[in-house]
Structure formats: C-alpha cells, structure tokens
Queue: 2 jobs
Job 1
Amino acid sequence: MADTLIDGLTAEQLKEEEQFYADSGAATTSIDEGGGKFSLLVSFADEPVEPAKTELPHGTDIEPPDLDGYVLVLQRLTTEQRGSLRRTVGVYQSFHDRRPVADVNGFCVERPGPGDNSQIGVANERRIAAGTYPLFTHAGDNGRYNTMHFRDPGGLSLRPWPCIGVENTDRRSGILIHCAAGFLMSIGCINLSRPLVNAQSNLDYDDSRARVIALITSIRNVLGDHFPGDNNLKIPTASLVVRDEPLANTSARDDIILQPHVRGEPSPGSPVAGLSDDWITTASDVTGHFENAGDPFAGVSGNFDGQGVSLGVLQWNIGQGSLPPLVKEGGEALVHSCMPNFGADFWKACNVSIPDGLTIVDSWQSSNRLPAEATTELRAYMGSPEMRAIQLKTIRATADRAHRMATTEWCTPRATGQPTLKEFCWFFDIVTQNGDLKGVRFSDVRTFTEGHPGGGAVEFICDWLKNVEAPPKIADDCAKNASAWPAILAAEDRDLFVLSHLRTLRSKEAFWGVVMNRKGTLTVGRGRVNQEDFDLRSIFNRPPSPSS
C-alpha cells in the first residue's frame, strides 16, 4: 500500500490520527508544517508471504437470519494476533427477507472479545455484544464518516469516509460499519474486507471502501423511496445481526489466536506447561477482588450494566451469553440444589434466548438490584466446588495467554527468564480488563526511564497521578497512592511501574485513574483501588516459577 500524507492537522488532531493509525499496524511520522499545523505520513509495511493457517468460510455459508427486511449478518469466527495487535475476524452476508443478496458479502474485522456494551466495554475498547441492532444513516460532528455525502472519489487521506450507523448499543456510542486499512481501524466498529489469509493480512482501503459503498447502495436499492433522505435517520426494516464464534463461551473464544507457529514449539493455543492452578487461582482472586469484595469466585452483580446478572471471577453474564455455557456444564441438578427458590427460573434463563433470559432475571430485581435471597443463592451456587472447578477450567485459557504475553512481551526483551507471580498477575489483569498492551513495548519503558534519570520516572508518574481528573472517590485513591508509592516501590519493580503508566495512557482518559490505581497496586504490592486498601506483599512472596 502506498504511503499516505494527511496534512493540515492541529496538534490535537495529530494525536488522534497517530493513535488511530497505531492500531492499524502502520508506521507514522509527524511533520511540523509551522503555524500550529502538522502533517502525518502513514506507511503500511508489505505483507509477509505466508501460507494460510486455516480455511475460513465464505460469507454465503452464513445461516439466514430469523428476521425479515434487509439484514446484514456478521458471523464471528476467531481471533488473530500480530505482535501486540489483536482482532476478531468474521464473515458477513446481506439478506433481504431471509434470502442472500448477491455480491454483498466478505470478511470483516473488529476489536477482540468478549463483546461488551457496558461501560466496561467502553473503557476496554472491546467489540460490541452479539445481538440484533437497527441500522441508521450517519454523519458525525467531526466530519470523519458519512452515509451520504462522503468524499467521492475517495482515498485514505480524504474525509469523510462512507459508513453505516449501528444504534441501540447501550453505553457504546459511535458504532459504525466503515472502511479501513491495515490490521484494524476500530474502537468498537466493524471494518469490511476482502478475504484475509491469516494474521499478516492487511485490509486494503480501496477494497474496503468499495464494500461499504456496495452495502449502502444495496440497502438503498432494496428500500427505494423508503431509504432515508438525510443522515442520522433510522433505515426502515434494516438490521445488523451479530453472532459470536461457534464455541462454548466468550472467555474461551477470546483466546483462539491464529498466528505463525514455529515447528517444535508449543502451539499458541496449547496450555502453558507448568502453569499451576495455584498461580491461576491467585491471579483470579486478585483481579476478581478488585471487582467484588469477598470471594471473587462467588461474585454476584445485578443489572447495573444491562447484562442481567454477572457472576464469578470474570463476571460471566446473561447479556453477552457468556454465563449459560458454564451453567449448562454444571447441570440442572446443581442449580436446584444450591438455589431452592430461584433455581428453576435461573436454569430457564440460561436455556432460552438472551432477550428472554434477561427478562427472567430482570424480573427479580428492583432498580437493577438483586434481592438478598437471590444474591445468597447465586453466591452459594457459584462458590460451590463444582462451579469453582468449571470457572478455573474456563479461566485457564485466559491465564495461558497472560503468561505467554508476560513471557514474550516483557521477560524476553528484558532477558529475565520466566515471569514472577507478580508479573503474571499484572498481565492477567491486563488480559481480563484491558485486552493487551496496545503496542507498548519494553523499549518504550527504557526510553521513558532514560528521559527521567535518577529515579525521576517514579516521581514524574506519581506527580501526574495526583493531578489525574477522575470522580472524587477515584481521585482520592489516586492522591493517596501517589503520596505513598515513591517511598515503598522496590527498585526491581520500577520498569513494571513505568509500563503501568505507559499502558494507562493508552486507555481512555476518563479511566486513567482507575487503570493506574490497579496496575500500580499490583506492581508496588500495596495501594488503594475503588476505595479499598490492598496489601498483596504476602501473596506475591511465592516461588519464582509457576511449577505445578
């Protein structure tokens, strides 16, 4: 793909564009034009030539929707990884009154899962939850995307790009189906593409743009005069149906990665040899306790985020469809034995459609709060030996990925061998809460530290933390951590502390405080998170290797 120059940017626009293109795998170079204006040179590396790692089905193999009208069906297939970048890969096919529409199909990419339309999904920039959504015409205030009046002829540097809006996404906003280039261009949106061979395959902008325009044109042709005459209007009878990968649950799905495999080395999807249940339980307890007071395996949350009920260490829930597979594995008899009053309804909620399941568990709640009796029964159920074992098995895939990430992206560049328990817990929290490092590397840590010599990096970060804008309670945690950490941070943990800061800056600014409080507490071994004091020093005082 040829280099692209985007000119006439303000300093703020330059920062936004640099972040936008970072997720695409492109290299960027900023150029000061003078007068407060900048240009950005965007370069995509040539794709390595590699054989296909898997055969992915064509869009026409998608099961038709159980819905009339114009329906775009997106079937998610797997997760791919290229370095620190990750994406969900799927296929799409348009239907009209349940019949395929010719030539409106192909591949698509999104953020990794699990799908999440809650505030957590916003913070962690996850893909949207599986479900059915109405389609809208769209025009944003920033002039970047339009359904009507997009730039034509177009190009990577020519805005606005063509798009279709996706609405009714709960806390998520600005979800679009739009064109893209490179590895991925999305915070929650859907990028259309030609067939993708493997993780090294890039989206081609011209092809992707043509696919989005073909979708818009197809809907317009089918609806005729019923197609809206302006932007930001509902498209009558037009829907998006998103289906998750055809596997047991979203937690496991998030760890299926297609990437190059060296002969003789463990497959990326294989369990990490020697990673003990003790380490996995410890990491689960620490991350889970940040979310739930008490025993995280028995954690219970009501419908505060639109997910019905969320249970266990990783808060599996009805709304995303991640809880029913665990419940079904445990069996109906276990539900009834632990939940004599709410068990029948709960089992039914996990064996019907997601909307019907949400209706059942919502009927228990007042102002999205579960009654005490239901909470007690759900805790007894999730805390039972049977459900603990099921949770631990499900968590292992996440733990394996965290350990690999800690090894390849942290310990190997630092030549320190295998991760310590502290490092493993830090990366487990990253995987479950934030996804990945978003391109931060050890070389970035070294550059930052060299720019603040004599221990100045820690002082700089803590001064920054004192001034982070956050809600009052989180700001109070920030201030107390910033005051305490410089005196108690061990010298051997300074690199991980700097990594915590740099990864925090890749999160949304509204969540900087809580992200740094979590990662800093894991690094230092002490700190405040969500108005609770944590002392993890005795927990991290374990053997240096995760041997069984």
Job 2
Amino acid sequence: MIPAIPPGSRLDLEAVEGRPDAVGVGDVAVYLGNCGGFVAHRVLAIEHGPAGRVLVTRGDNQDHDDRVPASAVAFKVLRVTRGRISYSTGGPAGRALARLAVRGGLPWALTRRALTRLLRGIQRVL
C-alpha cells in the first residue's frame, strides 16, 4: 500500500466480519491472504454475481487486481499513523489518497517527504 500506507504504519481497524456492506469503493479492506497472513488492499470496485458480493481490490503499489468475497473481509482501515503523520481514511486526506489510488494516479515513487507535504497541504486547505 506504499505510499499511502508506508511499511510499519499503525492501522486502526473496524471489524466488519458478518457485515459485507460495511466496505465500499475506496476503503482499505483487510482480509486473510492465501499465504496465511493478513492483506490490506484498497477496494476499486464491487461486483455482484451468483456467489454474492465480490470486492475487486489492489494494493496501491501493485499492477494486478484481486477478487475477494465480501464475506472474507475481516476489517476495514479507519486511521493510518506512521510517526508524526496520521490521517483518517474517511477524512479529507484519506479520501484524496483513495481517489488518486482508485483512478490509478497514486505513483509508487511518491516519497515519504512528498506524501507529508501532500497531507499537510490537504489539511491546510480544509
């Protein structure tokens, strides 16, 4: 999820297990991956099929999509904290990062310093 969620970030989570409608496009969903560990990926789209609701997810720094049954999602990310940088995923900074990521405009090369400037700029505007 670099650069929006740098490695080592603390994530504040909301349990959504049993509530498949609690996660929407732009949210960061946390689910158990194939390797046995938890995966945090952004929801790009929601598909409905015979098997039910399926989330199309992708890490912000990835080039391929994953399809995850909504029932497999255990948490959604509410807040990201890394050092002195902290933002709510539902707040202005989080929504801006989500819009950029969903549209494919969040470059992996965005440095920590540039991300800090972006977040501070968004906060100043509001």
